[in-house]
Design brief:
- By secondary structure, this protein is α/β, with parallel strands linked by helices.
- It has helices at about 15-25, 50-55, 60, 65-75, 130-135, 140-160, 180-200, 205-210, 225-240, 335-350, 390-410, 410-425; strands at about 5-10, 30-40, 40-45, 65, 75-80, 80-85, 90-95, 95-100, 105, 110, 115-120, 125, 175, 210-215, 245, 250-255, 255-260, 265, 270-275, 275-280, 295-300, 305, 310-315, 320, 365-370, 375-380, 385-390.
- The protein folds into three domains: about 5-120 and about 280-350, FAD/NAD(P)-binding domain; about 130-275, 3-Layer(bba) Sandwich (FAD/NAD(P)-binding domain), CATH 3.50.50; about 365-425, no CATH class.
- It has twelve helices and 27 strands.
- Helix 9 (about 225-240) links the parallel strand 14 and strand 15.
- Helix 11 (about 390-410) packs across helix 12.
- It is globular.
């Protein structure tokens, strides 16, 4: 008899951790066949993408190769992008895979499943605002983050070598959305622009020639954090010279800059959209599954989709209720981590004919790293309640979250060794990526 086939679509934090756990527990002894599918060949922890975009993190040093991870952990990896579902025959369809020149290298394929887990994450939501797709950069993937880093470096090289005075607004950056990604990127860019000047682009005076803007439609930045910490983070940004615009609803993006509802135009050459999320479009009511207005699959507390007990969803693409008021699990790495841990247990139980376990969200707080300057956030504990943290303490906790992700993938010995190697490389690598 063929082993039970579990297909996981999406190799983000939750999907990759789940595939690794199931591979170790079920794939090792052939109790189940585990297949992970992703459109990329490599993985990087999504909360680090703002560092890739700024150039303070070289993705080639921190990325994980899916094929190697699969080989080491007894699951299989298949390259491809899901674009169809056949629930009646329990199969998914993958779109053809093209190379950089647009030539097909892998044809359309179908994969049969016994259990399907959808973990495709989320994308930035442009809310249909004119000009966003045409003029803004996004930070949903490693490729997009690297594209921003190249454009930033190219803009500064062009200004440095032009042989003429730098024009007003020529090096301005505007970030729409003051959640964690937008705020963290702004702080990193302040650090990076000064490093680039120190590495030889000295005709550029960052304090004079570069303006970084953060634009938020709501009344304050970092709405997920308590107001006191939001205020502290804004003061830190302003201390760095970042201009913060709150209660400024964006109505259009043009090549010149950001247009707001009150008639303002914020000039910027580089424009980043980091406001709101949605699940990928292909999920919208896919083969009759229930989805919400931002394409998330609606799931029960067991993470099973409401219309098919054989299909689960986790992470940002799942609309999972966490209380009687109908609040949903937030789109955070900690929620995806918790859900992958639960699903690893649930899918083992299902092989033994036992029912699925309910998901209980535990909020351990939120942390926002503002480059090398500071980290702010709140930690949630059952005994201590909510505790505000900042500075070195918060920075240590922030870094430990990434170490927990690495430990889930590699085990603690290798995670500690990776940290040691990174520490040793600091003395020989530049502080910012220069290519």
């Amino acid at each position: 008899m063929k082993p039970h086939r579990i297909i996981i679509v999406g190799g983000g934090a939750g999907g990759l951790e789940l595939a690794t756990k199931l591979g170790r527990r079920l794939g090792r002894n052939d109790r189940a066949e585990i297949i992970l599918i992703d459109a990329s060949r490599t993985h990087i922890w999504k909360p680090l993408l703002h560092e890739v975009a700024a150039g303070t993190l070289d993705s080639s040093e921190d990325e994980l190769e899916y094929l190697a991870q699969a080989r080491w952990n007894h699951f299989r990896f298949r390259l491809g992008r899901m674009n169809g579902l056949d629930r009646a025959n329990r199969s998914i369809r993958l779109a053809p895979t093209l190379n950089e020149e647009g030539v097909e290298i892998i044809p359309e394929r179908h994969f049969a499943y016994d259990t399907l887990v959808v973990a495709v994450g989320s994308l930035c939501n442009d809310f249909g605002i004119p000009g966003v797709k045409e003029h803004c950069l996004f930070l949903d993937t490693t490729a997009q983050a690297e594209r921003f880093q190249r454009q930033l470096l190219n803009c500064m090289l062009k200004a440095h070598t032009a042989g003429k005075p730098i024009e007003e607004g020529q090096l301005n950056v505007a970030i729409v959305g003051a959640g964690a990604t937008g705020v963290e990127l702004a702080a990193q860019l302040h650090q990076v622009t000064r490093l680039l000047s120190a590495y030889g682009l000295d005709t550029i005076d960052p304090d004079k020639h570069i303006r970084i803007h953060v634009i938020e439609a709501g009344p304050r930045i970092l709405p997920a954090l308590p107001e006191r910490l939001s205020s502290a983070a804004q003061k830190e940004l302003e201390k760095l010279g970042v201009t913060v615009h709150t209660e400024q609803r964006v109505v259009a993006i043009t090549d010149e800059g950001i247009h707001t509802a009150d008639g303002n135009m914020i000039p910027a050459t580089l424009k980043v959209w980091a406001a709101g999320i949605k699940a990928p479009e292909f999920l919208h009511e896919i083969d009759g599954l229930e989805t919400n207005q931002i394409n998330q699959l609606v799931v029960e507390q067991t993470l099973q989709t409401t219309r098919d007990e054989h299909i689960f969803a986790l992470g940002d693409c799942a609309a999972c209720p966490i209380d009687e008021q109908g609040n949903l699990a937030p789109p955070r790495a900690q929620a995806a981590h918790q859900q992958s841990t639960l699903l690893a247990k649930t899918l083992q139980r299902r092989l033994n004919g036992k029912p699925a376990l309910p998901y209980r969200y535990r909020d351990y707080g939120s942390l926002v790293a503002m480059g090398r300057y500071t980290t702010v956030g709140n930690l949630m504990g059952g005994l201590a309640g909510s505790m505000m943290v900042s500075g070195l303490t918060a920075r240590f906790v922030y870094l430990s979250l990434y170490k927990m992700h690495q430990a889930a993938l590699y085990g603690w010995p290798r995670a500690i060794l990776i940290s040691l190697l990174h520490f040793l490389r600091k003395g020989i690598d530049p502080q910012v990526k220069l290519h």
